[in-house]
Amino acid sequence: MRKVHSWWDGKVVNLRNGTYVIEFPDGKSEIIDEKDRLRPSHGHVPVRLLKKVIPIPGDKQASFINIDHTHQLSQILKHAGLLMLRLADDRKSVISIASSVASAETAATLVEMLFLKVERIAQKVAQEKMLQARVHGVNLTFGAVCNFQVNPEYLGLLIGTRGCNIKSAQAISGISKIDVRPDGLISITGDTQTAVDAAREQLEIVHEVIPVPSQSVALLIGAKGQQILELQQLAHCRMNVHDGRAGGHVVDMTGTRGNVGKAKALVAYTLESIEEERSRQALIGNLNAQLRSLSTQDRPPAYAPARGTG
Cα dist. 91→62, 64, 78, 110, 116 in Å? Predict the structure, then answer.
């Protein structure tokens, strides 16, 4: 028997001695003699969609709206095997769409069960919201607090010129108070832990070390330390040039995170400028040498007209 690859709609228009004449919608016909190649068209049952509107009792509509009804309905949809279950646009009923009577009836039963306990769920939701509001109020009253210790030697770097670093940290949204004790204990109070952590990150004292080429150390320090002093004043950061552990020289920088970042940029720029100046000076020296070389080369004697004798 031939393998059937697909089924086509057709109409049996003639039957003669076990032979079938099939007429297809395109007007073509075919004579077949295998009964197994025929199937009744009513063998393919169409899908039926059942829509049901379930009214919400009037005394429960407000409670139903206030609970997480989307979650509740999604649970019913899953357990009943529905195609759709949602709150109607007028919020007075629930609409379900099912592919079978059994699913529709199961969903209706579960929705009715939800209506019976909706007021208790609404009470729990209201209690949860009240407690969340109280917790939020406590947070606003007491806030978040962060304490950390700084070497008293570096308090001036932390505070900044005329208190600029403290003012910058206090300007962070949610920060209410910053205390700086003479022994180096810093206390930050704010509405949230996020705000307090952001203020601490601005005020913390950090240390960074970057290498310096040996041939550039003297120029970076400058005459009587004037160059490195100017860099410290620009960055509001303490700098110290010394021998590194692995040989060579390094710049040790101490200050707030932002100022140390600024100091690193200033030192890197200064070192690049020193290197450029050194390259430029070498080029100038080479050009002067070329000029001296050209001036000492032998030149042909200048033309002098001969004098005649009279």
Answer: 9, 9, 21, 18, 17
Q: From first to last of its 310 residues, what are the pLDDT tens digits of the chain?
A: 444 445 666 666 666 666 666 666 666 666 555 555 666 655 555 557 888 999 999 998 888 888 888 888 998 988 988 888 999 999 899 999 888 888 899 999 999 999 999 888 888 888 878 877 766 665 555 678 888 898 999 999 999 888 999 999 999 998 988 999 998 899 999 988 899 999 999 999 999 998 888 888 888 888 888 889 999 889 899 999 888 776 678 899 999 999 999 999 999 998 888 888 888 888 888 888 888 887 776 555 555 555 555 4
Residues 6+ apart with CB under 8 A from 228: 220, 221, 222, 239, 241
Whether this model's pTM surpasses 0.70: no
Residue given tokens 């209201």 in the structure block: 126
DSSP 36: G
Whose structure tokens read 């070192």? 271
What type of residue sits at position 246?
A
